[in-house]
Write a structure and sequence with these properties.
The protein is an all-alpha fold. It is built from 15 helices and no strands.
Length: 310
């Protein structure tokens, strides 16, 4: 048997799910939400994770009952018909243009450390490498993803460890005025944004046929991976909003706080973690494209023919 026939266990799926959740959102959205919620950033992360899990409940039910590769396509085709399935595939293909933005994000972090390289060339190299990883096989892709996740989690863990001792805990008193300094509307806007940063675990179901006991594994992975990442995010939010004045870090990325808490060499390592943060997303999105295509290889083309014949 080739490598493509190897099944993903719960460890593989956890790596893929956590890798899909943790991304550029934590680097970009944290500062934006601090601007909206002030010291309420930690509470906003908790509610954002809860909201992300709630929105996954229908998907959890479907994947438990009908685990399948290309799950999104499969469910739409079965419930709404082949034409709707074909439209889903068409929209998904068009959406993959966004992979280029992840590659550019990786290049911007990379070139902040190695300015001698051109961003466009680095972005193109990242796309080529990620495509090659996907061509090797799903199991190899999962192993690479797990390695990236470990490195990324290490950089975020160091951010927490070095940052917590420097947090001004008196400023984090859990009062209504402190949690919602800009009002409930801005607070819940921040929660909605952070639910996006906490989402993504459901996409592991796109490889349902390649997962060991998918009806049991997928729901566990969605809930566990989201909860684990939420704990990390809450601690990151405490550091990001508690080390420097809120006015300083509002609507800024995490590098301002990183410069404050890290020695130079660890700051560079953290920025490199930002590279990984964006780099693993094109690799995973391409994998999702492969899974969906596999799921729609027979029925999707048939739907296209039917649409074209009328």
């Amino acid at each position: 048997m080739g490598e493509g026939h190897k099944k993903l266990n719960i460890s593989d799926c956890m790596g893929l799910a956590i890798g899909q959740i943790i991304g550029s959102g934590i680097m970009v959205l944290t500062g934006i939400v601090i601007g909206l919620t002030g010291h309420g950033i930690a509470a906003a992360f908790i509610l954002g994770a809860v909201l992300a899990i709630i929105t996954c409940v229908p998907f959890i039910i479907l994947t438990s009952a009908i685990p399948s590769s290309g799950a999104g396509f499969t469910y739409i085709r079965r419930l709404m018909g082949e034409k709707a399935g074909f439209m889903y595939i068409a929209m998904f293909v068009l959406s993959q243009v966004l992979i280029a933005t992840y590659a550019k994000g990786f290049a911007s972090y990379f070139c902040s450390i190695f300015p001698q390289f051109g961003e466009s060339a680095v972005a193109m190299a990242a796309l080529v490498i990620c495509t090659a990883i996907n061509l090797i096989g799903l199991k190899s892709s999962a192993l690479v993803q797990k390695g990236m996740v470990v490195l990324l989690l290490l950089s975020l863990f160091l951010f927490i460890v070095f940052g917590l001792p420097k947090v001004s805990w008196d400023a984090l008193t859990p009062t209504v005025s402190n949690l919602m300094p800009n009002g409930p509307k801005n607070f819940f806007t921040g929660v909605a944004l952070l639910s996006f940063a906490c989402g993504g675990a459901k996409f592991v179901a796109e490889n349902g046929d390649d997962i060991v006991e998918p009806s049991r594994t997928i729901p566990k992975v969605i809930v566990l991976s989201t909860s684990i990442v939420a704990v990390f995010y809450v601690l990151i939010g405490i550091v990001a909003g508690g080390v420097l004045p809120v006015e300083t870090v509002a609507f800024q990325n995490l590098t301002l706080v990183a410069q404050e808490i890290f020695p130079t060499w660890l700051y560079l390592f953290f920025v490199f973690g930002g590279c990984i943060c964006t780099a693993h997303h094109p690799e995973w999105n391409l994998e999702l494209g492969d899974a969906r295509t596999a799921g729609g290889r027979k029925t999707g083309l048939a739907a296209g023919k039917n649409c074209g014949g009328e």
